[in-house]
Amino acid sequence: MAKGFFISKSLGVVGLVLGLGAVATIIALSVVYSQEKQRADDLSSQVPSSTSAAVTPGTTIAGTAQATTANGTAQATTTKPLEPWDHMRLPKTLMPTFYNISLQPFLTEVAPNLYIFKGNSTVDFQCKQPTDLILIHSKKLNYTLQGAFLVSVTGVDVTAPAIHSTWLEEKTEYLVVKLKENLQQNKNYQLHAVFTGELADDLAGFYRSAYTEGTATKLLATTQMQAADARKAFPCFDEPAMKANFSITLIHLPHYKALSNMPIKSAKQVTMPGGEIWTQTEFHPTLKMSTYLLGFIVSEFENVSAIKNNILAVNKNVNLPSTVKIIMDRWTLQMGFPVLTVDTSTGIISQKHFLLDPESPVERPSPFKFGRSSFSFSSLIQSVTQRFSSPFELQQFQAHNPEGRLLPSACPSPALH
C-alpha cells in the first residue's frame, strides 16, 4: 500500500490566509512605489533650467560645485565663497603688541537682574601683510559710535587709511573693519573702541558673582578668560599665539579693592559725571602674554602681600577674610618667605620655596579666586585634610608662570592645563 501524509483542515486554512495576505502586501507596495516614483518625476520636471548648467565630465566652473547625474553628466551648482570673517581663525595679517584697557563695573542693578560694565580700549598692532581688513574678536559688546563707525583707527608711524564700513559678525564673534585702502606692511596702527557689556553671572569673560558674609549678600566682578572669553570683556585678538602686553585700569567705588595680574601703579579718586566719587586703580603693564591669561577682580576681599629685600611676592586675593586670611597668615606669610618669588631686576622666577610640587600644572599669574565652598569651614571643626588641602590649593594657583606660559600654541588645548 502506498504511503502518504495528511494536512489538517485548520492548518490548510491558515496557510491559505497567509498566502493571500502576502500577495495583497506585494500588490499594495507596488502601487505605493509607482505613485512615489511618479511624484518624484513630476518634481524633477519642475526644476528651472537656469539653476544648473550641464557640463561634460571632468570639467569645473569657478565658484561652483559638481554633482554627477545618472546618465554620467555633471551639473554645476553655485556656491558662495567664504569671506575672511566666515573663518573661525584669525588671518596672519595683523599682530597685536599692546592693549590699554579701562573698565568700570557697576555692581548695582541698572534694570531687574541686569548689571553692566563700561569700558574703552586701545590696541596697538602691527601689519604683517598688506590688507584692507581688520578682524578683531568681540562678543556681546555694544559699541558707542565714533562718527559713523563702531571704532576708529589711527596710525602710529604712518597715516591710517579711512574706514569704509564696520559691522559685527555674531556667528564667528568678529568686529569687522573694512578700510578704503590697505594697511602698510611693518607699520603700526591703533584701534580705539568705547563699549558697554553685561556683567552677567555666567562665569565667562568679565562677570559678576555673589557670596554671603554673615547675613549680607555681596557682589564682586571678576574674570574667566579661558579659553576664548576675553573677547567678552573687551575687543581683542583672542588667540593664544596673539601675545601682547596689557595695561589695565579699573574704576570702582572706594569701598571695593581692585587686583590684576600686576602690582598697582597708582590709585586716585575721580569724580564721575554725576558727581559721585570713584577710585581709579591703574596697574603696571604685564609681560607679553596671551589674552586668556589676563585676570582682574573688583571686590571687598582683603589681599595680602609681602616684600623681602628685592624679592616681590605675588599678591594673593583671599576669599573671605574670616577664613582664608587665617589660612594664608598661618601657612604662607608666617613661613618667613613668599611662596612664589620674582627677582624684579632679572625677572627670574624662583621655585625653591614652593610648598608643593614645582612640577604641578601652571596656568596664570595673580589674582586668584576660589569658590566659597572650598574654604568655608569652622575653625572649631577642621580635619587634618582640610588644614593641609586649603593652603595647598591656594598655593597651587600661585605657582603659575607670570610670563604668560611661554608656549607657541596657536589655539587653546586641554593638554596645556
From TrEMBL:
InterPro entries: Aminopeptidase_N-like_N, Aminopeptidase_N-like_N_sf, Peptidase_M1, Peptidase_M1_aminopeptidases. Keywords: Aminopeptidase, Glycoprotein, Hydrolase, Membrane, Metal-binding, Metalloprotease, Protease, Signal-anchor, Transmembrane, Transmembrane helix, Zinc. One of its GO terms (biological process) is peptide catabolic process. GO terms for molecular function: metalloaminopeptidase activity; peptide binding; zinc ion binding. This is Aminopeptidase N. Gene3D superfamilies: tricorn interacting facor f3 domain. Its main location: membrane. Transmembrane segments: none annotated. One of its GO terms (cellular component) is extracellular space. It is found in: Membrane. It is a single-pass type II membrane protein. Belongs to the peptidase M1 family. Its cofactor is Zn(2+). Residues 96-293 form the Aminopeptidase N-like N-terminal domain.
